[in-house]
Design brief:
Elements lengths: L4 H12 L2 H7 L14 E4 L2 H10 L7 E4 L2 H11 L3 E6 L12 E5 L2 H17 L6 E6 L5 E10 L3 E8 L10 E5 L4 H9 L4 H4 L10 H15 L6 E11 L6 E3 L2 E7 L2
Antiparallel strand pairs: 1-11, 2-5, 3-4, 3-5, 6-7, 6-9, 7-8, 9-10, 9-11
């Protein structure tokens, strides 16, 4: 799922100007063509999305899906504070706007109260309650993103770029045609406006681009797996650390193909 339709169209147009990259990344001629889907995409909740991506090889944040306040407090003990609490619902893609994200909880009483508030907010908006995610707060240096979809013309396409809450307001992305290799991801990252920041500026340590590339490759493999049945996905933010510190997907939305 891309940040905006305009962003997806603009990125695809930009991609067409790089025919060499397109030819290098195109699946073999023997691969089946990707015809337009006749199935309706179904959004998975965040917990299911993160679990699916973790199984595919994407590093995701440590989390527990809790159905009541006691489970949330137990999760705090398991993960160690501070933690983030987020409402989990297959009806809600953007949680912050609904007040469903709370950060930095480190006391049992705080976790218990926050759980109750988040559940009430979900029910107030008429969304189904799948639970509350309690996730370990992660550290890193830069928020990046990976998006992907199965395009009826190009087949699986993957976006890589700058991430965070301003991704829609100030998109900085590049498109890759799956399958691709790590070299193609690095070339795409080098074309971003934020590319100099990845190498480190003003004495800062370079970011762990290798870890991010591995995450992008895992997404590529998932999107080209026809049996997985993924229509589109959005990993934002992916928190990237300094070289050797890895990267972690903090949030994810996956749309799976479902029967009409």
């Amino acid at each position: 799922m891309f940040a905006t339709e305009y962003e997806a169209i603009a990125a695809l147009n930009q991609f067409l100007s790089h025919r060499d990259l397109m030819q290098a990344s195109r699946p073999a001629a023997s691969s089946p063509a990707y015809a337009p889907s006749t199935k309706r995409a179904t959004m998975l909740n965040e917990a299911d999305s993160l679990t699916l991506l973790a199984k595919a090889g994407v590093p995701v944040v440590q989390f527990r899906l809790c159905q009541n306040a006691d489970e949330a407090v137990h999760a705090l003990g398991q993960l160690g504070g501070p933690v983030a609490l987020k409402g989990c619902s297959a009806d809600v893609a953007h949680k912050s706007e609904m007040g469903l994200v709370r950060l930095g909880a480190d006391q049992a009483s705080q976790v218990r109260a926050t759980f109750t508030e988040i559940k009430a907010a979900l029910l107030k908006h008429g969304a189904r309650f799948d639970g509350v995610i309690v996730a370990k707060m992660a550290r890193g240096r830069r928020e990046l993103m990976i998006g992907a979809r199965v395009d009826p013309v190009f087949g699986p396409v993957v976006l890589v770029g700058d991430g965070g809450k301003y991704v829609e307001a100030m998109p900085d992305v590049q498109v890759l045609l799956a399958p691709f290799d790590a070299a193609a991801v690095k070339q795409a990252l080098a074309r971003l406006r934020i590319a100099p920041l990845l190498d480190g500026v003003r004495g800062e340590t370079a970011l762990d681009v290798e870890a991010f590339c591995n995450a992008a490759l895992a997404v590529s493999r998932l999107m080209t797996d026809r049996q997985a049945g993924i229509a589109n996905l959005d990993l934002n933010p992916i928190l990237v650390g300094a070289v050797g510190e890895g990267c972690t997907a903090l949030d994810a939305v996956v749309y799976a193909q479902g029967e009409t």
